[in-house]
Design brief:
heterodimer; A: 150 residues; mainly alpha; 67% helix; globular; B: 284 residues; 8-stranded antiparallel β-sheet; 8 strands; 46% helix
Chain lengths: 150, 284
């Protein structure tokens, strides 16, 4: 990984990044996995997401956690669409479920049913209208209901 | 890809509104349409099945987390070499200062450290206090029995949580102090409570029912610590740290209500929703 890319942050900004922004890293990783189907690619996407917001760190100070989470997820969504990179993590128990779904469907399923966002929030991330979001969600849930967790 | 059309089909509408149905946020008409669709599509149990599957999906997703190395790489994005070197230098200086203490102080510290190490080793590797009963299995069973026969199992039927708090507080020989519960929200009503006596432990059980859905939720409290339960996926809802479990029918979260009291929330909802309910009802 690239190191020491940005070096001009005071202690407060550094603490904010480490203690507040990075609290969302696991949530971001789960969404990254849903998009990429790969734990390795997911880890790289999380790093890229945080790397891309470092130059804008001051903009996040004093923002509430819901806004921060939404921004991180939107940034991840954008970064993934720049390369649309997908892989395989067959050992992950969710891989058989997710691989049968198209990208948008699994994104919607995770954002709503795992992370717990409202459709309004998901719309801010994906820019998809509500009717289509519900349609994708219906597909994902139908598949979820027929899926057998091993 | 999902194909676009003017409106959702009945089947799409049913699946798309499952979480709204479970969360009881559907309007009267929308709920009626949901129930009609479920009936017409022969999917009467779809909401319950979805609640269970969504809970399992959430639990499996929570097993994914960033490892130390990847997290460190992200931290390195803002922590420069100079800062890190300064922090390390401060740490070394602190250690160095401690080395200047007099011999007597040093011996005293060493003695305390040695004592702490022996105590720590005993706590870590010594015999663990045995769980008084298999709480997880037992209380899932109790929840199932309560679902099937609520009338016959609740010794103290009431729709007032304050009466249940009073009932628990004055219950004889509990051997722990129960925490008072608060009304969760207007969508839920309390049905009553009972104290389950396992001889080795007494368990406080309170039953809640969704006013519109009829969905059951059970809150249990008993004397014990959650490290007596099997290891599981940890979760955190606004500071309420819990462990999540799932049976084939029900989801469970367990958390430490107070230092010697464990709580367990059992229902068909996902772990996070159970934690939210626990947070509202029992608090931190």
């Amino acid at each position: 990984m690239a190191r020491n890319a940005a070096r001009t942050y005071d202690g407060g900004a550094t603490a904010f990044f480490v203690e507040t922004l990075c609290q969302e890293a696991d949530t971001v990783l789960r969404f990254a996995f849903a998009l990429s189907l790969s734990e390795d690619i997911g880890n790289r996407l999380v790093y890229k997401t945080y790397q891309s917001i470092v130059p804008h760190l001051s903009e996040f100070l004093n923002r509430d956690s819901a806004t921060i989470r939404l921004f991180l997820l939107r940034r991840l969504w954008e970064l993934h669409h720049e390369n649309d990179e997908e892989g395989q993590s067959p050992d992950n128990i969710l891989f058989p479920l997710l691989r049968t779904l198209d990208l948008t469907t699994r994104a919607l399923l995770f954002l709503v049913d795992v992370i717990g966002l409202t459709l309004e929030e998901v719309g801010e991330i994906t820019k998809i209208d509500e009717l289509d979001m519900r349609r994708y969600l219906a597909q994902g849930r139908k598949r979820l209901l027929s899926f057998r967790f091993e | 890809m999902a194909s676009k059309s003017a409106a959702l089909t009945d089947e799409e509408s049913l699946y798309a509104h499952l979480s709204d149905y479970l969360d009881e946020t559907l309007s009267g008409d929308a709920k009626k349409r949901f129930d009609e669709n479920a009936k017409n599509l022969n999917l009467a149990s779809v909401a319950t099945d979805y609640g269970i599957q969504r809970g399992r999906l959430q639990i499996e997703a929570q097993r994914m987390f960033l490892d130390e190395k990847n997290l460190r790489d992200i931290h390195d994005l803002v922590e420069d070499d100079a800062s890190r070197a300064n922090h390390e230098a401060e740490d070394i200086e602190t250690v160095g200062r401690s080395e200047l203490k007099g011999n007597s102080l040093r011996f005293a510290i060493l003695f305390v450290i040695f004592g702490a190490l022996v105590y720590g080793a005993f706590v870590l590797f010594g015999p663990k206090a045995k769980a008084p009963f298999k709480a997880l299995d037992s209380l899932i069973y109790e929840a199932i029995v309560l679902i099937e026969d609520p009338e016959g199992r609740l010794d103290f039927p009431t729709d007032r949580l304050s009466e249940i708090n009073h009932y628990f507080e004055r219950y004889p020989d509990l051997k722990f102090k129960p925490k008072s519960m608060q009304e969760p929200n207007e969508l839920w009503e309390v049905n009553g409570a009972t104290v389950i006596d396992y001889e080795v432990a007494k368990v406080l059980a309170t039953q809640f029912t969704g006013k519109n859905s009829g969905e059951k939720l059970f809150l249990f409290m008993y004397k014990g610590t959650i490290d007596q339960l099997p290891q599981s996926t940890p979760g955190n809802f606004q500071g309420l740290v819990y462990q999540a479990y799932a049976s084939d029918r029900l989801n469970v979260i367990a958390w430490q209500v107070s230092p010697d009291v464990s709580g367990m929330m059992i229902g068909v909802r996902g772990a996070r929703e159970l934690a939210e309910f626990a947070f509202k009802t029992v608090g931190l």
